[in-house]
């Protein structure tokens, strides 16, 4: 290392093909470790073990740049697969998408747009004020979410069976999409609170 730089920073400084460098690789890896532990608590390992893995990955990349073996992982933790580099007609290249989350395929733009419209329509509070879009992330009890989720599920179930439902506050007829979005909001909220608690325990 030179000038107090890490191997990782030094590598990127002289890289002829600059890639996105994490602002703080150590902090990023710690966050990844916490998230993994929250999602897979039965497979959680210590932060110290994750940091050891990070240092090994970083060294493999350095070795690869100096003619050594192909690294097993990229800096963001995605696996490298030899021979799966994508080459475009323009001459541009990118690594494989193998092992990466395909959000474009997992999610529906129609459903997300409808959910956004539902959330925006429910920003107005009973006192007339307008709550921030991320107000729900400040924290609510999971009991609140599960009870509300059940109410929306029953409404959606009734609508699915052809039984009309009307909102208790203003009397409008509830649609299937509206009921499903209400259920989705409470599902998101429940997951959010559960993951927050698990991350704090790591």
Please state the CA-atom Rg, rounded to the nearest Å.
Answer: 24 Å
- Overall shape: it is extended
Q: What is the first-to-last residue Cα distance?
A: 32 Å
Mean pLDDT: 76
Class by helix and strand content? Answer: mainly alpha
Measured as a percent range, the helix fraction is 40-55%
Number of domains: 2
| Topology, number of strands | 2
State the major sheet. Answer: 2 strands, antiparallel
Low-confidence stretches: 5-22
Major beta sheet, strand line-up:
1-2
Structure described in brief:
The protein contains 7 helices and 2 strands; from the N terminus they run αααββαααα. It is mainly alpha-helical and 202 residues long. The protein is extended and about 65 Å long.
Description:
It is built from seven helices and two strands. It has two domains: 7-92, no CATH class; 112-125 and 140-201, no CATH class. Mean pLDDT is 76; it is low at 5-22. It has a two-stranded antiparallel ribbon. By secondary structure, the protein is mainly α. It has helices at residues 7-13, 25-39, 47-65, 103-106, 109-121, 142-160, 176-201, and strands at 86-87, 93-94.
Which characteristics define this entry?
202 residues, mainly alpha, two-stranded antiparallel sheet, 2 strands
Topology:
Blueprint: H1 7-13, H2 25-39, H3 47-65, E1 86-87, E2 93-94, H4 103-106, H5 109-121, H6 142-160, H7 176-201
Antiparallel strand pairs: 1-2
């Amino acid at each position: 290392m030179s000038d107090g730089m890490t191997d990782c920073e030094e590598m990127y400084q002289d890289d002829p093909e600059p890639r996105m460098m994490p602002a703080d690789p150590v902090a990023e890896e710690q966050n990844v470790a916490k998230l993994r532990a929250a999602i897979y608590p039965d497979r959680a390992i210590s932060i110290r073990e994750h940091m050891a893995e990070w240092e090994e990955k970083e060294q493999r990349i350095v070795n690869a740049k100096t003619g050594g073996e192909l690294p097993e992982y990229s800096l963001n933790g995605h696996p490298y697969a030899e021979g799966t580099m994508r080459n475009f007609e323009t001459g541009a290249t990118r690594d494989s998408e193998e092992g990466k989350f395909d959000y474009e395929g997992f999610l529906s733009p129609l459903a997300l747009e409808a959910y956004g419209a539902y959330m925006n329509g429910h920003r107005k509070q009973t006192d007339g004020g307008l709550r921030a879009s991320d107000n729900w992330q400040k924290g609510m009890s999971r009991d609140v979410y599960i009870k509300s989720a059940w109410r929306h599920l029953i409404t959606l179930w009734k609508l699915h069976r052809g039984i009309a439902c009307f909102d208790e506050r203003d009397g409008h007829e509830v649609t299937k999409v509206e009921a499903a979005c209400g259920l989705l909001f409470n599902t998101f909220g429940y997951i959010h609170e559960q993951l927050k608690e698990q991350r704090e325990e790591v």
